[in-house]
Amino acid sequence: MLSNILAEYLTKAGLNVQCVPTGVKHLHRAAHHFDVGIYFEANGHGTVLISENFQRVVAAHTVDKLDSAKVHARTQLAMLHLLANQVDITADKCVTNYRQ
Fold first, then answer.
1. Helix segments in the chain, DSSP class H
2. Span 80-86, mean pLDDT?
C-alpha cells in the first residue's frame, strides 16, 4: 500500500510518523500535537497544519546575515504556511515533488 511505503520512507528520513484509527477526526486530532502536522486521508487528500507556535519561533529566530544558507533556510521555514496553501489540489497526495 502506498501509504505504508510513504510512512516507511518518512520514518527513515527521521520524521515522526503516527498511525491513528480510521477517520479524519482522529487524523486531525493527532496532527494538532505537532508544530507541523501533515495527514493523508484514504481518498488521497491531505492536510497540513502549522501551529502558531512554529510560526512565532521561526519569525523570532535571527540568523547571521553572513551565513546565506541559514538565511535561506529561515526564509523557507517562514514561508511554509504559504506553501501549505498552494498544494496542487489535483495531486492525489499532499507530498508532491519532495526532495531531501
1. 2-12, 24-31, 52-60, 68-78, 80-84
2. 63
pLDDT of residue 100: 41
With a pLDDT cut of 90, the percent of the chain lying above it is 3
Q: Which residue has the cell 510518523?
A: 17
Q: What is the Cα–Cα distance from 93 to 87, expressed in whole angstroms?
A: 9
Cα separation, 47 vs 45, whole angstroms: 7
Cell readout for 91 is 495531486
Q: How far is it, in rounded angstroms, from Cα 57 to Cα 1?
A: 36
Contact 58, 74 (CB under 8 A): yes
The DSSP output letter for 6 is H
Name residues whose C-beta falls within 8 Å of residue 38's C-beta, 6 or more positions apart in sequence. 31, 46, 47, 48, 49, 94, 95
pTM of the model: 0.61
